[in-house]
Amino acid sequence: MIQLLKMAYRDLGRNRRRSFFSALALGMGLALLLLMAAVVEGEMRGSLESTIRLESGHLQVRADTYDEVKTSLAWDDLIENPIGIAAQIAALAQVEIATPRLFASGIVSVGDETEGVRVIGVDPSSGANAPIRDGLVAGDFPAADDREGVLLGQPLADRLSLHVGDQVTLLINTSNGDVDQQAFTIRGLYSTRTPTYDDRTVFLPLAKAQAITRAEDHASTILVILHDRQQAEAVAAALQGPGLLTVTWQKANELLIQTEQFAKAYMIVLYLIVLGVTATVIVNTLVMAVFERTREIGILSAIGMRQRRIMAMFFAESGLLGVGGIALGLGIGGLLVVYATKQGFYIGNMGVTGMMLGERIYAYLTVQDTLTLTVVAFIVTLLAALYPAWLAARLEPVEALRAGQ
Amino acid sequence: MSLYLRLAWRNVRRQGRRTLIVVLAMGFGLALMMMYDGLIAGFEQAIYGNAVKILGGNVQIHAAGYNDTPGRRPLLPLPDDQAVVDRARALPQVVAASRRIKTGGLATSREGAFAVEIVGIEPEAELPVSLTAQNVSAGRFLAAEDEDMAFIGQGLATAMGVGLGDRFTLAGGSTHDQMRSRTMTVAGIFDVGLPDIEKRSIYIALGEAQRLYGLSGQSTEVVLFLHSLGQEQAVTAALAPSLPGYEVDSWETNFPELQAAIGTKSGVMNVFSVIILMIAGIGILNLLLMAVYERTREIGLLGAMGLRPGQISILFILEGTLMGAVGVLAGIALGLLFNGLLGRIGLDYSQFTSLTEYTALITTRVYPTLGTEKLLGRAVTVLVISALAALYPAREAAHREPAEALHFV
């Protein structure tokens, strides 16, 4: 084995440039795949994290008749005495935060323009608002007892040319199926760098939201954040109650997980094409080597080297090329991934409303992806030696010896 | 030149096996790009085709300033909408021209609230061309004199829990910072099989919209229904000069996010494909590098016969480019084969319809086109990369000393 590797190494060294370029081709292919895998993974992770932070939390407790899509405010669809229930949930050891939220549909209107928005009534002091608080770009969160204050997303405010202190009219649906409207003052602007969220989400203090929607002592959901999100299922089981429905973050993100699977299936096609193209370069290099060394191969088999061993020699060569290429690939790919992880790619607003897509994608390379890609690249490279090795083993010693004379 | 080409072509063919492998690599690269182009084009067709049919109109005319801020849809009345309609109707491609008022609104019932776009239409003008009018599942289409009557989609009716003859509250943005809320009766329900899209619009009579939203005798948009998709450009070009002070747009401009998404993805794909082609290009580089060694004597001979280094270089660059050209042919064959097959089967996107506003317009499956939309540019890319890959071996060949090269055994 060692001897085979030595021979293979020497053979590759005989034509350094060609060997280098072949390894480089593999390296470029691998680097490209690593970067792509990291970007897709980063996109999905980022989106999942954003959804959990901004939308789903780790767990939500709702009335079992509540339909997220409809934003119903009928009392039957809401949770009564939400503050009391939230306090009970917060008393559980695994729970970090539990806070009521009220969702309503509304329209912001300024001058001749109107924009459909989602109104969220929150307890301003709750730690669950951290992503919004951290994203404040101007002004402040309305206080809990503020009856006229509203918090707007920056993209929405920019689009409507609004600033802190300006007035907007907000029209909101109510519990009895009607609408109510009132003029609000913008207390603050936030940006979570998630365009589709910031563009449509408006915050009110819970008490005000309950008052204007006639929801009174009701909320749409109790948002729960756990110390360890893996415990979501267990806590959900503990929170079962009559008329209540608990939704874990896994369940709330089913579409995202589907999308991820679809993206990964699509990526496999790309992987195969890239590695297929890379393999052709290796095949060609080794085919050329077979023809250059026809005489040598003839001599080797004339002095008794078995066909298998001749084949093994070419596999050893492709294996070494593979190792070199993978080293190059990990090097180049590693640099690219580090850059993409730190700087990210700007994608802007793609209009994706079904999942929370930030305006930048940060790459995230998992150990598993790295290992899988490395191993697959190596296997493909080894497979690329099949045809040249078969060509070499098939040579008749006598004819091979005559070759080139 | 043709002599060079002939020489280069012969050289390409001398090593059939190697060339074949390299050509395949290039071909894969090109086929991949064609697959992508076909998919995107199929995607756009699926979306735009339905968008035009359901939301109505291939060309829209607004007052100046309407498009000033992307995503903003102000309630700007047209200065003289009747003149616009008359102009448009004179064009042969225009089947119908209709005035509309569009404003943001909120439809509420006991079940919940839904942000909608309220569209005031001229029922008599849209009746013959409107897809919604042809798919009335209950009740009737609107009539010009309708008051407090709405025509809604099945998707919205189901979501709001209302049926024919039921009443619901409809609030809409009116001029001068006002919201007008009104109880409406469901006059008719249409069903076009796209619940997500049906949820977004509510149709009322233009006269009613004018009264409700403070636009007496006015409209904010004129929509033109054309004979077929693809005539938008001609119509836009014909109308724009005669309508100063108006903004004439075709459908694409209505989906800025879709355009942005496709733009970003295409950018990524372009980089991706160039890298794949560069990898395939390394194949050409290696192959020609070997050829330089194998043909050392030949090159010496050519040099001795008086071919200048530059000319020898050209020979090799041509050889590389020709390989690229054969690769282009192989790629086109592969790409057409793949897209042809996939174009028949189609791709199932139905589970992603709720992902974005534009994917909601995909009814069933996406059928990729043949992917020849950008073929010329793609083919040129392949040729350029092939030629670049040949540069290094060509330089190598050109630097051989004829005498030494001839000595070489």
Question: Any overview of this molecule?
Answer:
The complex is a heterodimer of chains A (405) and B (409). With 405 residues, chain A is α+β, with helices and mostly antiparallel strands. Chain A has 2 domains: 2-52 and 256-402, no CATH class; 65-242, no CATH class. Helices cover 53% and strands 20% of the residues of chain A. Chain A has helices at residues 2-14, 16-56, 82-90, 130-134, 154-159, 195-198, 206-212, 232-238, 249-252, 254-292, 294-302, 307-342, 367-384, 386-394, 397-402; strands at residues 59-63, 79-80, 95-110, 113-122, 136-139, 149-153, 167-173, 179-190, 201-205, 218-219, 221-226, 244-248, 345-346, 360-361. In chain A, strands 1, 3, 4, 5, 6, 7, 8, 9, 11 and 12 form a 10-stranded mixed beta sheet that branches. In chain A, strands 2-10 form a two-stranded antiparallel sheet. In chain A, strands 13-14 form a two-stranded antiparallel ribbon. In chain A, a hairpin with a 2-residue loop joins strand 3 and strand 4. In chain A, helix 1 crosses helix 12 (307-342) and helix 2 (16-56) packs antiparallel against helix 10 (254-292). The longest helix of chain A has 41 residues, at 16-56. Chain A is elongated, with a radius of gyration of 31 Å. The two termini of chain A are 32 Å apart. With 409 residues, chain B is α+β, with helices and mostly antiparallel strands. Chain B has 2 domains: 2-51 and 258-407, no CATH class; 59-228, no CATH class. Helices cover 52% and strands 20% of the residues of chain B. Chain B has 14 helices and 12 strands. In chain B, the strands form 2 sheets. In chain B, strands 2-3-8-5-7-6 form a 6-stranded mixed beta barrel. In chain B, helix 10 (256-294) runs parallel beside helix 13. The longest helix of chain B is centred in the N-terminal third of the chain and has 40 residues, at 16-55. The radius of gyration of chain B is 31 Å and the shape is elongated. The mean pLDDT of chain B is 84.
